[in-house]
């Protein structure tokens, strides 16, 4: 059995796991999502209350969209089941059903029900609950084992979604996944030298036209960083402060995009979304006159291109 190394293993590719993956992979962490097993969401007949789908969405298409988004963000999505997570030399060794072994400093448990693969990372009395059902004693993962942000008493272990008691609704699970992802990133950034006020990461694109000060005014950039990211009574050494400030200002500048870039992203996003939709239904909802107009435009373009081809 060969062992690979990653930054994060996410167990479960449902709404919570994919939300964590999108969050941390966009930051640049090397994340793998293992997704195989009993999915509670796949037992749903049709999803009607997820924001952004006014008439609802079928589960198959929703899964394809989630997984496509996670992969686009930079995650590896692997169809394999995690069987165990063990502590080893300050890291975790994740073993899967198909014989994979992954060494990581952080694991996110984002399955809905089964937490058996986590057994042994903490005492059973703390990690699992027992209850009686129809005269039989059952043991299950304690939904209150992690705190509200998904952190646990095991350093590097996070719990998101249903296993953390946030699986009642798909949108709730996805939101909790993003919360856990941001908390994980804050912990990573603290290890990178960030302090408490600077640790939260904001993944947000801004309109450059809305910038209310000169782009090249470094004093203003520095002042804004100090106002929002540095406590008045800080005792941060100067070299560390300068390094983090420069890194953050460069990042914030990179998140400002212009009109043409916004338009390009809009077109690309809608094209990507269209690949997940039924072609016949798309043709049905498009106005017939517009379809005929489009066909004529394409024919003219083809003829024009043909005339310009040299003999």
From TrEMBL:
Recorded superkingdom: Archaea
Keyword tRNA processing attached: no
Keyword Oxidoreductase set for record: yes
InterPro entries assigned to the protein according to its UniProt record, in alphabetical order: FAD/NAD-bd_sf, FAD/NAD-binding_dom, Ferredoxin-NADP_redctase_2
Record domain FAD/NAD(P)-binding: where: 7-111
One Pfam family, short name: Pyr_redox_2
Keyword entries, A-Z: Flavoprotein, Oxidoreductase
Coiled coil: none
Molecular function in Gene Ontology: oxidoreductase activity
Protein name per the record: NAD(P)/FAD-dependent oxidoreductase
